[in-house]
Design brief:
Layout lengths: L1 E2 L8 H24 L11 E10 H11 L3 E3 L10 E10 H8 L5 E6 L3 E6 L14 E8 L10 E4 L5 E3 L5 E7 L4 E5 L6 E4 L8 E2 L10 E4 L2 E4 L7 E5 H5 L6 H4 L7 E4 L11 E4 L12 E4 L2 E2 L10 E7 L2 H4 L10 E6 L6 E15 L8 H14 L8 H9 L12 H5 L4 E13 L3 E13 L6 E14 L4 E17 L4 H10 L13 E2 L7 H6 L3 E17 L5 E20 L2 E5 L2 E6 L5 E24 L2 E24 L13 E27 L3 E12 L8 E12 L13 E15 L3 E2 L2 E2 L7 E4 L3 E3 L2 E3 L2 E3 L10 E14 L4 E13 L2 E3 L12 E3 L2 E17 L2 E18 L5 E2 L2 E3 L7 E4 L2 E4 L3 H5 L16 E3 L19 E4 L4 E12 L2 E12 L1 E4 L51 E3 L2 E12 L2 H6 L4 E9 L3 E3 L11 E2 L7 E11 L1
Parallel strand pairs: 3-6, 7-13, 19-22, 28-31, 59-64
Antiparallel strand pairs: 1-41, 2-4, 5-6, 7-10, 8-9, 8-11, 11-12, 14-15, 16-21, 17-18, 19-20, 21-22, 23-24, 23-65, 24-25, 25-26, 26-27, 27-29, 29-30, 30-33, 31-32, 33-34, 34-35, 35-36, 36-37, 37-38, 38-45, 39-40, 41-44, 42-43, 45-46, 46-49, 47-48, 49-50, 50-57, 51-52, 52-53, 53-56, 54-55, 57-58, ...
Length: about 1150
């Protein structure tokens, strides 16, 4: 295929304009930086400005905490916080402020981790609850779950002002404590604990980290934000949430963790068992529904990243959070951040497991006797003679199959393994000095398939390096290397082989007694195909490099430039080996009959990306402002070729040049596209109470013609932290944080998928070769235009409104997040029919709209009872889809695309049970109109309409209607976990509340295309079994069988509840590990897909919305592993 009017925006002239605009942004931000007072906002370098002529110490502490990230810890019996003081400092360090504040007093201070300030009175060692009251002295140590000491923990006798704080070793001592009182332990970033004292004098305490703490930093587009300041629909998953799932793919690990994010695992095939991610419903008629996935800012495959190298995953669900990525973010954005080394010293870790896979469920085929008896019943129901005589049946009943003249082949057992090996290993190294930091991770994953010659392996290596050359200059280089290898039988796909193993009739021969291959079905023998007919190998090497320079010349200002290049290749190699088949000891045929053949293919995709951005942030009198602006260019080149030959005469000589040259064929492809983008964002917050965010992105794409290439995608969002208002103070004892937010924005989409392949030049006329013509008495080769061009097409656009509420209650033990959204997709690209005499296929046009509206809910509870910590998280979401405008276009088949309906709704007839008697048949309209072809036990259909919209006494196309929705509704998950004395236990449940599955082919029709019948299909209608699950048994295709038409009879509920994951682990005590110089050692056992509760047909997975009999079963996995850190 030759594509005309190719356009690339990589020209020198265009790049000149890019740099010109970029430096304009840099100059503008620099000017703002010098005009505005510089206020540091993070870490040790924070400065304070105070001008208080009269106020108490408490007021001063609150003002310092508002201007910085510092938090004060003290005992109010040691510190007179009501003392009136005055202070006047400008852009001073915290040390200078505290020296002036406590000059001439006995108060001392200590700054811990650049964030916490511990105040003590040197004349007070401890504070008694009551000087006149005698009690015991309680001592102890407060640590986190990793046994690290917590410094500055408040230890207070509940109901009093008496207490102390922990020292640098996490130890505390509290004197004169009465019996039977409650001690309250509280610490910023950790969940508080209340413990009732008895007679003990030693009380060691573990505080759980508050994973929902308000000052958590979340990765967003081109930067980070504090969670308290988020106004968009952004959710964050930590590495521990993923690693504990113990699965081979990150996409599968995300399933059920985030409301509004649908992850469907529809296959268990090695290398293809990842989940398909969809955020808030489908977003186009003819485009991919997958979100943009960025790994450290570079587009990539989330399943090719070792989960042990991941720091966090952020999901941008609404337009406000995703619009800074413009046209690439129409389906949402997934931001994967990998780990980087922190601090000094070297740390080494290993996490690995080994396990077994077994299929969750598969249909159960009948044996030979059951098959032959069923065939005879089906033929009798069709008024046909029996296919198998009583003599044959008696031989099977009395003597059994001899595998010479009489066969009873268990194809499923012979082809499909019951168990297969899986193992994963990951080693990480993190280390550095004050200047240099290195994080390295190497991983290896292997999965054996459920059939022969079906494996997948993946090796990954990631190296993230940073160098702090000066206080204001930082550089880094990241390298990512991956190679995966998949092997499959080359004569047939694994799915097809499994399908044949389940559906081939047992009376076919598989393996003869002498070891030769049986004839199977006309020579097709899935046992031989999987074992000896040849192997197809696919190798995918990948190399990614990213370098960056970070400038921080003065406080608050930051400039970042990065360049990345990613090369992904795919090398395929297959050789088909024919095999001979025999039956009754006699040679039958060689399969395939056209002999051996060789195929080789190669493809390469190179993506280059340049990004430059600058930002400035400041905090002036409780006014926080951050401005970000940048430019990005991206280009992609894809090319490939393939070649094949047949007729290889000598065994072992399997290179292409050894094949018959007359059978040689080859092909080649090349595609390119490029994008240029400008982006900007403004964040404003007043007193961390009133929040505003503005985003804008300008994109230009080579996929559209000049004049239609540029698109602008803006958004805005606002938030209000009600919990910070003075009127909310009475509720603060129960509600820690309450925020409402709203957003509105626009996103674009340039992608078109046709026949599973991207369309790179939808605006252009296409020309194809292979069109010969007659000229000068001979045929010449030629090309021809095959499609009408439309130079005016441009972006698909979607607008989205989102409103949400975030709440943290009861000392952040309970958190609730809720979002409601409306997403309108406009200018959808589709093709309209044109007159046949044009002789060309239809052009693409921007015509069509669709709407998704829904809601997401997440509720979590985390607490501790004694030594038992536990957490519960529940997610629930729903989305409704509706096609709103097709401009007269419509698509009708098994599925329908029509205005007012969900996209691709199931379309067919409405069933009304079975015909039970001939009288019912005579009194009712029947499909096809010929009642002589209808028998009791056939499916009865309702007459619901006619030419005038009313029932007309016939069953025809007018009676077809919407019979189901293939999209999931009410997706839910429940995550339960507990920890006790080193043991940890988690259970993860996931499911769907509503979905319609359409069963066709072998799943619905016994003996489909001459094959077998499943055991559950033996529950068919007879006069004695009138409420059977299946209609009257018939040979497929016999007569005019109306049971096979698409109707709601074959629609089954796809609602299900699945135990997706269960993990039991044990972490060895620190006392034992310290002697071995080990920081942490955890052993664990896990199980995936333990059970499923559903009403779908037995043997079929409910995650598939349509079952046609050909599938690769999802795996049930049992693993044992170890996680060790040095």
């Amino acid at each position: 295929m030759i594509m005309l009017n190719y356009f690339s925006i990589r020209s020198q002239k265009k790049y000149g304009r890019v740099w010109y605009c970029f430096f304009r942004y840099i100059i503008l931000i620099c000017l703002c930086a010098f005009v505005l007072p510089v206020q540091a906002t993070t870490g040790k370098s924070q400065v304070i400005t105070l001008n208080i002529s009269q106020g108490n110490i408490t007021d001063i502490f609150k003002e310092i905490e508002k201007q910085s990230d510092y938090h004060f810890f003290y005992n109010d019996e040691q510190i007179d916080t009501n003392k009136q003081v005055k202070i006047n400092v400008f852009s001073s360090s915290i040390e200078d402020v505290l020296k002036q504040l406590f000059k001439g007093t006995n108060i001392t201070y200590k700054v811990v981790d650049h964030s916490y300030i511990v105040l003590t009175n040197k004349y007070f060692k401890n504070i008694s609850p009551n000087p006149g009251q005698k009690g015991k002295c309680i001592t102890g140590r407060v640590v986190d779950p990793t046994d690290s000491p917590l410094i500055g923990v408040n230890v207070v006798v509940e109901g009093t002002a008496s207490g102390t704080i922990t020292d640098q070793n996490g130890e505390y001592s509290l004197e004169n404590v009465p019996d039977n009182v409650n001690l309250l332990f509280s610490y910023v970033g950790y969940l508080p604990r209340t413990i009732k004292t008895g007679n003990e004098t030693l009380l060691n305490v573990i505080l759980e980290e508050d994973t929902k703490r308000l000052d958590e930093v979340v990765v967003v587009g081109y930067g980070t934000q504090k969670r308290i300041n988020l106004t968009g629909a952004v959710q964050n998953i930590t590495s521990q949430d993923l690693i504990k799932r113990n699965v081979g793919n990150t996409s599968t690990a995300l399933q059920g963790l985030i409301p509004g994010v649908s992850v469907v695992q529809s296959s268990g095939r090695p290398g293809a068992d990842g989940g398909n991610i969809t955020i808030r419903g489908t977003g186009s008629l003819n485009s991919s529904t997958s979100p943009l996935i960025l790994i450290d800012g570079v587009e990539g495959d989330i399943n090719n990243v070792d989960m042990n190298a991941i720091e966090s995953v952020s999901i941008l669900k609404d337009a406000a959070s995703a619009s800074i990525y413009g046209s690439r973010a129409s389906n949402g954005v997934v931001l994967v951040t990998t780990k980087r080394a922190q601090g000094e010293g070297v740390k080494v870790s290993y996490n690995g497991y080994v396990g077994l896979n077994t299929p969750t469920s598969m249909p159960d085929p009948v044996n030979a006797i059951e098959y032959m008896e069923a065939v005879n019943v089906a033929r009798a129901n069709a008024d046909m003679d029996p296919q198998y005589s009583e003599d044959i049946l008696n031989i099977y009943r009395t003597q059994g199959a001899d595998n010479i003249n009489y066969y009873d082949t268990d194809w499923r057992k012979a082809v499909i393994k019951n168990t297969a090996l899986v193992h994963n290993h990951s080693v990480s190294l993190s280390g550095g000095s004050k200047m240099f930091h290195v994080f390295a991770n190497g991983g290896y994953y292997y999965q054996d398939g459920q059939i022969s010659n079906n494996t997948y392996s993946r090796m990954t290596l990631r190296l993230n390096t940073d160098a702090q050359l000066t206080k204001w200059l930082k550089v880094g280089l990241d390298v990512n290397i991956r190679q995966s290898k998949a092997t499959n039988p080359c004569l047939d796909s694994p799915e097809s082989i499994i399908n044949k193993a389940l559906t081939f009739t047992p009376v076919f021969s598989g393996v003869n007694n002498d070891g030769s291959w049986g004839f199977g079905q006309n020579g097709d023998n899935p046992i031989a195909v999987s074992k000896v007919a040849g192997v197809a190998t696919g190798v995918t090497p990948e190399l990614g490099i990213k370098g960056f320079v970070l400038l921080q010349p003065f406080k608050g200002f930051e400039a970042l430039a990065s360049y990345s290049s990613r090369k992904v290749e795919y090398k395929s190699d297959s050789f088909i080996n024919p095999y001979d088949t025999y039956e009754n000891g006699v040679f039958k045929t060689t399969y395939p009959a056209n002999g051996n053949s060789k195929y080789e293919g190669w493809s390469q995709t190179i993506t280059n990306q340049f990004n430059a951005q600058a930002s400035y942030e400041t905090n002036i009198l409780r006014n926080y402002l951050k401005i970000l602006a940048g430019v990005q260019t991206e280009e992609l080149t894809n090319r490939g070729f393939s070649a094949s030959r047949k007729g290889f005469e000598f065994e072992g000589f399997e290179e292409l040049n050894h094949g018959d040259i007359s059978t040689a064929s080859n092909a080649g492809t090349r595609n390119e596209w490029a994008m240029m983008s400008y982006f900007a964002r403004v964040n404003y917050a007043f007193a961390d109470r009133y929040l505003l965010e503005l985003n804008g992105r300008w994109d230009a794409s080579s996929r559209f013609m000049k004049g239609h290439r540029w698109g602008f995608f803006p958004s805005f969002s606002v938030g209000w932290r009600i919990s910070e208002e003075s009127f909310f103070l009475p509720a603060k004892k129960w509600v820690d944080n309450l925020k409402i937010r709203a957003s509105y924005g626009t996103l674009g989409n340039q992608d078109i998928i046709l026949g599973g392949n991207p369309v790179y030049f939808p605006y252009a006329a296409s020309i194809a070769s292979g069109y010969g013509y007659w000229f000068d008495k001979k045929e010449g080769t030629g090309v021809a235009q095959t499609q009408v061009a439309n130079e005016k097409i441009s972006w698909e656009k979607s607008t989205q409104f989102n409103a949400g509420i975030d709440a943290a209650l009861l000392n952040s033990r309970l958190s609730v997040n809720f979002d409601y959204y409306i997403r309108n997709i406009n200018n959808m690209l589709q093709q309209f029919p044109i007159p046949m005499y044009v002789g060309l296929s239809s052009p693409w046009e921007n015509a069509g709209s669709m709407r998704n509206n829904g809601w997401d809910l997440s509720v979590s509870w985390r607490d501790r009872i004694g030594n038992v910590g536990y957490h519960i998280t529940g997610n629930l979401s729903d989305v409704k889809n509706e096609v709103t405008n097709l401009y007269g276009n419509e698509y009708i088949d098994t599925q329908i695309i029509r205005e007012g309906l969900p996209l691709r709704s199931w379309y067919g007839y409405v069933s009304d049970g079975y015909f039970q008697t001939q009288e019912e048949i005579n009194a009712s309209p029947v499909y096809g109109g010929n009642k002589e072809n209808i028998k009791p036990g056939y499916i009865r259909y309702k007459d619901i309409s006619g030419p005038d919209g009313k029932p007309d006494g016939e069953i025809n196309d007018y009676d077809r209607t919407v019979i189901g929705n293939p999209y999931a509704r009410y997706e839910f998950s429940l995550n339960l976990g507990a920890e006790w004395k080193g043991f940890d236990f988690t259970v993860f449940l996931q499911g769907v509340g509503k979905r319609d599955i359409l069963y066709t082919e072998a799943g619905a029709r016994p003996f489909y295309v001459g094959r077998t019948i499943f055991k559950n299909q033996l529950d068919y209608w007879t006069p004695e079994n009138r409420n059977a699950e299946f209609p009257l048994l018939l040979i497929d295709g016999s007569g005019n069988n109306p049971n096979n038409i698409v109707s709601d009879f074959w629609i089954k509920s796809g609602a299900y509840l699945r135990m997706k994951n269960m993990v039991v682990g044990y972490t060895l005590p620190k006392k034992i590990l310290s002697k071995l110089h080990i920081d942490n050692l955890r052993i664990y056992a896990s199980a995936q897909n333990l059970f499923t509760i559903c009403s779908a047909y037995k043997g079929y997975d409910p995650e598939n919305s349509v079952d046609r009999g050909s599938f690769y079963p999802v795996m049930q996995t049992f693993t044992f592993g170890v996680d060790i850190r040095f």
